[in-house]
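Continuing from the previous page...

OK, I double-checked the sequence for DUF3299 domain-containing protein against my notes and this is the correct one:
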Amino acid sequence: MTASRRQFLRIALAAATLPLATRSWADKVRTLAWAELIPEGDTGQLLKQLRGIGVVQHGQLTTGFDQPEAKSVTNAFDGMTVRLPGFVVPLDFGASGVSEFILAPFVGACIHVPPPPANQLVLVTAQTPYDMRDLFDPVEVTGVFHSNATSTGLAEVGYSLQASKVKRYRG
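Thanks. Re-ran it with the corrected sequence; updated structure tokens here:
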């Protein structure tokens, strides 16, 4: 076999295995649905009710909702790299963007309507601040997920996520 033919075969083999190497990283990221964060036995009925209210102004709810207590959280995704879409509720932000926020399953949660149960909220710490344009724009957060209770000024939160990537959600 000639040297040029060997070189061609090496390049062809490298090109053929490149998609496999790229795919292996993507296969390690688990896309989560919000329903997976509600442990069995915790029905999340109030969450469905709150979603039906829509976005309202502060003080305009006709019922005095407090944050419903979550029965528990799930540990099934601890330490996993996950992808989760949702809405940003900013906690720490500056000129370069939002570096810490609550990820919520619906727009207006914790701000215009009572917060959902703690097992439906994720505290996100972003390595790179996210340049948020609008509270109504959904995002997709990818990073390492953990089950751990945290109290913020807005809500009790059941999960945390160390975000390696935050981007606008495109569906």
